[in-house]
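Researcher: Re-running this chain for the archive, since the previous output was lost when a drive failed. Same request as before.
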Amino acid sequence: MFRVTRSLLHQEARGKPLESRAEDFGQLLYDKIAQIREDFNLNEEGPAERTRAGFETVIWAEFDPVTLEDVDRLLGGLRKTTCLLDPCPSWLVLASSEVTRGWIHSIVNA
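Model: Regenerated structure tokens:
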């Protein structure tokens, strides 16, 4: 499909198809995160304190723990569609919600 699209658009192929895709994606993601952080206008009275240590870290001054009902509401709002790049398809998360809800609850409140 990609080859056909490139040929229709008269674009040259990019060498090996999988060459450096992970690095390209990583750089794209890093640039997007940097842009989002730049766009945030956090003042000193805001909900978080900004620190410098390698990557920029946000330390929240306070946090409201989630309940199991909050996790159920989140899982109930998941779309049942999935993508080939999903590390864990949404249908699997929904099918195993009795198990995963406790894990998600513990991780978020850690």
